[in-house]
């Protein structure tokens, strides 16, 4: 940290974790800038939670370095916890404790009282503080975890499937709040299977598979690309067109170039039908993972 401000929010370099003979992660490197809302996506078992658990010092790495706010995830974990909030994918608190008491205890870990900000967040997420934790629904348990993570005004937030269990209105509410927080300089690592929310709210995304980072992509750079699906017609050749998939008379291309050129190509090909869409994060995800599976 420099002058109380975090310069490099999260840095991960060649991280490795072996669970005995099993590999958790093999080679994970990426960094999250100050004030960035950064996406972390990958299939089940890819190594997202392992990476997050190392960052939070719940488990030790087998190799490589992970740091938050320039502090080492292993050696400086106590200091890191003072300015880092965490929403786990599965929320567990003492079942018999009332929600208000859980938040009070959680704030206490950060030397904060139950203040106006805590009250604002409880209202925003419509949290019933009088209920015992075990009486809450799945979504309300998640909301309790959201308030516990945000109330101490952390500088860094680590979110593991934060919208899992939240209804669509609360999901929007959470992201509106996260956008505000990142505009105020809070750095956010968002691990999610919901590619729609990652595409909507994150600018950069790290893709992980089998413990290795496949790519860190700036979504602004892929936006001009179109996904073109055609049925029937003649062969279409153009340097701006890249064939992604071909099956049963259907061909899927990625196109980068001028729209007028694309329209002429489609017109001349004598097609039965076609669709043109902006390239989505889901398409990029499927393409990256398909490529990896090709021999
Ligand atoms: N305690 C453990 N013991 C042995 N292997 C483990 C352990 N925890 C995780 N693994 C293995 O490490 C790999 C990465 O798992 P991890 O939970 O980090 O993936 P993930 O990307 O978070 O998956 P998901 O999206 O399903 O939550 C998997 O192969 C998993 O089986």
TrEMBL record:
The lineage of its organism: Bacteria, Bacillati, Bacillota, Clostridia, Eubacteriales. Keywords: ATP-binding, Nucleotide-binding, Transport. InterPro entries: AAA+_ATPase, ABC_transporter-like_ATP-bd, ABC_transporter-like_CS, ABC_transporter_ATP-binding, P-loop_NTPase. The keyword ATP-binding applies. It holds the Pfam family ABC_tran. Gene3D superfamilies: P-loop containing nucleotide triphosphate hydrolases. SMART domains: AAA. This is ABC transporter domain-containing protein. Residues 10-235 form the ABC transporter domain. Belongs to the ABC transporter superfamily. GO terms for molecular function: ATP binding; ATP hydrolysis activity.
């Amino acid at each position: 940290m420099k002058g109380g401000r975090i310069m490099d929010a999260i840095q991960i370099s060649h991280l490795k974790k072996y669970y005995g003979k099993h590999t958790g992660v093999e080679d994970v490197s990426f960094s999250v800038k100050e004030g960035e809302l950064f996406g972390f996506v990958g299939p089940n078992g890819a190594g997202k939670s392992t990476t997050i658990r190392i960052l939070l010092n719940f488990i030790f790495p087998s190799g490589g370095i992970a740091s938050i706010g320039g502090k080492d995830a292993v050696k400086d974990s106590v200091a890191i916890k003072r300015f880092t909030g965490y929403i786990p994918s599965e929320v567990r608190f003492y079942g018999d404790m009332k929600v208000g008491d859980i938040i009070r205890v959680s704030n206490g870990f950060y030397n904060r009282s139950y203040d106006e900000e805590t009250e604002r967040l409880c209202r925003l997420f419509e949290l019933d503080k009088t209920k015992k934790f075990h009486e809450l629904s799945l979504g309300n348990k998640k909301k309790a975890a959201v308030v516990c993570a945000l109330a101490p005004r952390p500088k860094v937030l680590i979110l593991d499937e934060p919208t899992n269990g939240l209804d669509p209105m609360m999901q929007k509410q959470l992201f509106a709040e996260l956008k505000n927080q990142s505009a105020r300089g809070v750095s956010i690592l968002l691990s999610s299977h919901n590619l729609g929310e990652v595409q909507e709210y994150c600018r950069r995304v790290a893709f992980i598979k089998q413990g290795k980072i496949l790519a860190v992509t700036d979504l602004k750079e892929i936006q001009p690309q179109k996904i073109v699906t055609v049925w029937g017609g003649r062969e279409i050749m153009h340097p701006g067109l890249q064939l992604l998939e071909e099956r049963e008379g259907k061909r899927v291309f990625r196109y980068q170039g001028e729209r007028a050129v694309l329209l002429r190509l489609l017109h001349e090909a004598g097609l039965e039908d076609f669709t043109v869409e902006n390239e989505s994060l889901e398409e990029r995800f499927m393409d990256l993972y398909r490529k990896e599976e090709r021999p």
